[in-house]
Amino acid sequence: MHSTHDYTACLSLVPIFEALPHADLKTIATVIRPTKQPRGTILYQATDLADTLYIVDSGQVKIYQLAANGREQLLHLLNPGDFDGEYALFKENQAHQSYAETLTEATVCEIRRQDFQKLLLDYPSIALRILNVLAKRIQLLEQQTTRVTTESIETRLALYLLDTADADKTDEFKLPMKKKELATYLGTTPETISRKLTAFEEAGYIKQIPQRMIQIRNRDGLLFV
Question: pLDDT tens, 2-39?
């Protein structure tokens, strides 16, 4: 069994693991397979069986699709701390729809479904905690779907800021997503996000600070947007 290095820190970045106690992360780290890959290594191809969670420890990995003419369409880049394929740990007989290739020399932490599921059988308490995390995520997704279909973008953004502040237990926090990602999450455009944040600032509800920092100045104002 390999040394767990500090792969617990790597694991804690994956949503299904982030709320687990350190002891659980140490246990899960025992099934990590760290691999150092040269630039240009294909981690998986379209139609390959999806049975592995990949966490980038160092370097950069690109996820892309190939058009009919063979041209690459970049989907996203994975940087240190990013991951791909968490649901492969639970879903069987699913094929990849895209390709993953290292853009630089990279260290990638892999967890294979077979190893992960055996660990859950050996440690049912961890399985129960992960189920609890998944249930909370489903609840949040349902809440988010309801918001997107029934509430205005101002309300969705205001509630997102308040939820983030509550999660961080502070009224000054860093936006966890870039505006492009936040726009996708809230069902709007980055330009609209920028415009609404500026409007909130002008109304005295928030203060925008460089490096994506937000300071909430009037909670009631945001609650009744």
Answer: 444 667 877 887 877 877 888 998 999 999 999 999 99
Quickly count: other Cβ atoms within 10 Å of residue 95's Cβ. 11
Q: How is residue 47 written in tokens?
A: 């139609």
pLDDT tens-place string over residues 69-108: 888 887 878 888 888 887 788 888 889 989 999 989 999 9
> Around 74, how many Cα atoms within 13 Å sit in the side-chain half-sphere?
7
Rounded-to-5 percentages of helix, strand, coil across the chain:
45, 25, 35
Beta strands in the chain (DSSP E): 33-37, 42-44, 52-58, 61-66, 72-78, 83-84, 99-102, 106-112, 172-174, 206-209, 213-216
Residues 155 and 147 sit within 8 Å (Cβ to Cβ): yes
Within 8 A by CB and 6+ apart from 128, the residues are: none
SS3 87: helix
Q: CA-to-CA distance for 161 and 173, rounded, in angstroms?
A: 9
Classify the C-alpha dihedral 190-99-137-9 as positive or negative. Answer: negative
| Average per-residue pLDDT for the chain | 86
- At 156 the three-state DSSP class reads helix
Which pLDDT band, with edges at 50, 70 and 90, does 145 fall under? low
